[in-house]
Amino acid sequence: MVEDLGFAPAYTPGVPQGHWLSDDETLALSRLGVMELMMAGATTIVDYYRKPEALARAAQEMGPRALVGGRVMDADSAALAEGRFEHDRALGDASLRDALDLVERWQGVGRIDTMLAPHAPDTCSRAMLEEFARLARTTGGQVHTHLAQSPLEVERIRAREGLTPVELLDDLGLLNADLVAAHCIFLTADDISRLGRNRVVVAHAPVGNASFGAAAPIRALEGAGAQITLCTDTKCADMFEAMRMAIASARWRAEMEMVLDARTVFGWATTGGAVALKREGASGTLQPGAPADLIILDPDAPNLCPVIDGFGIVVHSGSAANVRSVICEGEVLVRDGRPTRVDPAEVIDEAQRVAEALWRRARG
Known about the structure:
By secondary structure, the chain is an alpha/beta fold. It is 44% helix and 15% strand.
């Protein structure tokens, strides 16, 4: 619903806000989110949220490999929805404490790993970002953030710092190959050069960006040297849709030149993601010594026939609905389109109840 109402929930008044959720409500929605991603073919998930314990618990229950972080910000969430950036040190300290507790409890537990996750340059003060730069240096952990995702962010950082968001992260020492930066839309030519020169991982979200009329300069970023992978960050976990939209948005930016093809975006969605997550052990390939991660699509699906070029048919015509089996480290997590560890009806029913209650609260 928020897709037709505003840029993102945190910045949109009148919709349920993440900071409203209890621990149990967050777990219910996290279970649904992990199940959806897994049933759509994800063997490895990257996610972060204000209550990260729920993300870790949901992933552990469902079975996929997951890199989880606690979303940290010191901008007041309630004020953001009204267009005000008010930094609250106590809020930042509390969310940072939860994030570090997550690392202590969940790092290396089963298929769960952890990450550092400052929300974005505009929702984190300089002091907060400096703390993350220090933590990254001392722990060697990867950092995941939103970067240059809106004109509002760019304007806010220019007013606050006299820099672009990319220049700010570079100034703080956060711009490196261990940074996973989602979006990267509103960039200067110098920003693109900095991201490429520092081998930053760009998590391209073509569907989420297109929903508010934007498209990242992804080919320019790749040409500059950035590492490219794909993410959903939208209301649908369909990575097939993301691959298609990556092609469409790149060709739109290039004024209809055929600048991107199916084989390239397939690589972004598989090996690109695996290579970007250095501590996860996944390779995105099937070869001796690699984890036994595999998804199997329905060979009888009409939209996947006839097959001449496998890359072309999967990228240009495939969908999450075609996923029949998902295997992670040799364990079958989805068989015949159904998760093996949980009852999907129970997961959906619980999430539905939570969502209805949240919207009742939003409407007063």
